[in-house]
């Protein structure tokens, strides 16, 4: 399409809002999309799920728009002799080349709040260009989207994996270039995943990571990699961008907390009616800090466990920092470090 007519189209197209749901394989993207669709629909929002995952062959739940109508992974693999990973990258490049198809199909969904269910292939979000270009195109067509990056909370149980998750999340934020909400998914399973080395707020707020490096160094295998881990967490702290919202898709409070974080990120503002529906849905007075209450809900569960020795490193329940907001998100990592080490007043 000529650049001129595209620009004209974006001037006249009304604003549309939505979420681009991304993350590693099996992190719960599809489950989240449908749970969020139901949650928002109960508030009176017109929501449509757009399946952008060409590997989703038989859609168990209805989607308003399916990339499978344009291209499917099995066809690409069979036709071009590609494996699943190469095939998926090809599918996204094919989508980018056929952006007009997407635009036409999305036109029919104007007026809806859109949830884009994306493939679970990490390179799409860290360095491959196709999906990023499609998202940039959507922005030109007046879509105001926020990326919702799901990561399985299982990774909190292993400090080494948690550092790699932080690196991936940061790389994704820098690559995708959308307003971004990182989410720790499957919180309902965290107790089954095993003992955490630190309290939950430590992982969601991404507090002083030197504790994580110290903890890793206590493992003989990781001792040799201490310097590498120190440098990695230095990069994460220097950017000071990564933090997580905990999510349990079966819990309304938790869904509300994610919804509010995303609405703030993409600038969606709802009317009185939706606000009243939300209050009715919650059917209880809720404090202002849902983040605190949700992590607290998990932490105060009798079966939730974390290493008590590590807890002692944080005197005076510094975990309430997310509750009383002594630490503002976005503050430099080193400033956070200083604050967390000072004794409580
Ligand atoms: N207990 C629990 N299970 C979940 C949750 N979210 C997803 N699952 C399960 O995790 C598995 C993977 O979920 P999906 O929603 O298919 O994950 P996905 O990210 O879309 O996976 P890909 O599209 O293959 O990348 C399924 O068995 C889900 O039932 C959750 O919040 N709690
Ligand atoms: Mg999926």
From TrEMBL:
Keyword GTP-binding: yes
Subunit and partners: Heterodimers with GPN1 or GPN3. Binds to RNA polymerase II (RNAPII).
Function: Small GTPase required for proper localization of RNA polymerase II and III (RNAPII and RNAPIII). May act at an RNAP assembly step prior to nuclear import.
Top-rank taxon, per record: Eukaryota
Signal peptide extent: none
Gene3D superfamilies, alphabetized: P-loop containing nucleotide triphosphate hydrolases (3.40.50.300)
UniProt keyword terms in alphabetical order: GTP-binding, Hydrolase, Nucleotide-binding
PANTHER family listed in its UniProt record: GPN-LOOP GTPASE 2, XPA-BINDING PROTEIN 1-RELATED
One Gene Ontology MF term: GTP binding
Disordered: annotated span: 326-345
Keyword Hydrolase attributed: yes
Stored CDD domains: GPN2 (cd17871)
Family the UniProt entry places it in: Belongs to the GPN-loop GTPase family.
Protein name per UniProt: GPN-loop GTPase 2
Gene Ontology cellular component terms for the protein in this record: cytoplasm
């Amino acid at each position: 399409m000529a650049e001129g007519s595209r620009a004209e189209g974006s001037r006249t197209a009304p604003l549309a809002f939505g979420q681009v749901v991304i993350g590693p394989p099996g992190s719960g993207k599809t489950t989240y999309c449908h749970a969020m669709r139901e949650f928002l629909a109960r508030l009176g929002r017109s929501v449509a799920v757009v399946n952008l995952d060409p590997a989703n062959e038989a859609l168990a739940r209805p989607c308003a728009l399916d990339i499978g109508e344009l291209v499917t992974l099995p066809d690409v693999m069979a036709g071009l002799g590609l494996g699943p990973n190469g095939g998926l990258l090809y599918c996204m490049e094919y989508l980018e080349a056929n952006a007009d198809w997407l635009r036409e199909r999305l036109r029919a969904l104007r007026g809806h709040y859109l949830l884009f269910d994306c493939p679970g292939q990490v390179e799409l979000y860290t360095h491959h260009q196709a999906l990023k270009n499609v998202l940039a195109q959507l922005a030109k067509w007046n879509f105001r989207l926020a990326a919702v990056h799901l990561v399985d909370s299982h990774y909190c149980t292993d400090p080494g994996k948690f550092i790699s998750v932080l690196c991936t999340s940061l790389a994704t934020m820098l690559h995708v270039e959308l307003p971004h909400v990182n989410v720790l998914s499957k919180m309902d399973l965290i107790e089954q995943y095993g003992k955490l080395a630190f309290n939950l707020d430590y992982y969601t707020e991404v507090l002083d990571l030197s504790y994580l490096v110290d903890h890793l160094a206590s493992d003989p295998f990781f001792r040799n990699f201490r310097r590498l881990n120190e440098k990695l967490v230095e990069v994460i702290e220097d950017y000071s961008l990564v933090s997580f919202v905990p999510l349990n898709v079966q819990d309304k409070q938790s869904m509300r907390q994610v919804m509010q974080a995303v609405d703030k990120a993409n600038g969606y503002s709802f009317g009185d009616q939706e606000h009243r529906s939300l209050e009715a849905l919650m059917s209880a007075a809720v404090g202002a800090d849902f983040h605190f209450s949700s992590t607290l809900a998990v932490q105060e569960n009798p079966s939730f466990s974390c290493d008590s020795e590590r807890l002692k490193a944080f005197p005076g329940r510094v975990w309430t920092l997310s509750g009383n907001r002594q630490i503002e998100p976005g503050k430099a990592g080193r400033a956070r470090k200083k604050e967390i080490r000072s004794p409580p007043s």
